[in-house]
Specification:
Blueprint lengths: L7 H13 L6 H4 L1 H41 L3 H11 L5 H10 L1 H16 L1
Helix pairs in contact: 1-3, 3-5, 4-6
């Protein structure tokens, strides 16, 4: 029996890979062999980076909180320690949002943290 080289399944699979390679540069966009490798690598990076994004956001939040703490006269680590001692359980995402949207509320929380450190 002869081998099918132009079957619909084969064409569909190649079309799918080349469609995913849209926007790639050079042969990676048009040549199936290179596009296949490029798409596989891109998908693995996308999978990895969806997880890394969570850590990136956390870094941004910490930087924002730290900058706001410096204005109040605390270091970031002392601020977090003060929050723990004061029994205030607010996550970093909410704290960073407070820094941006409601500075007065953040300053009030920072004062509570300072009091807890002094006591």
């Amino acid at each position: 029996m002869s081998r099918a080289i132009d079957g619909s399944k084969r064409k569909e699979h190649r079309k799918k890979i080349l469609k995913q390679a849209k926007g790639f540069r050079g042969r990676r966009r048009t040549n199936y062999k290179t596009a296949k490798d490029a798409v596989a690598k891109a998908l693995s990076y996308a999978y990895r980076d969806r997880r890394d994004r969570k850590g990136d956001f956390r870094k941004i939040w910490i930087i924002r909180i730290s900058a706001a703490c410096r204005q109040v006269g605390l270091s970031y680590s002392r601020f977090i320690d003060g929050l723990n001692k004061a029994g205030i359980a607010i996550n970093r995402k909410v704290l960073a949002n407070l820094v941006i949207e409601d500075e007065e509320a953040f300053k009030a929380i920072a004062e509570k943290a300072k009091q807890a450190l002094g006591a």
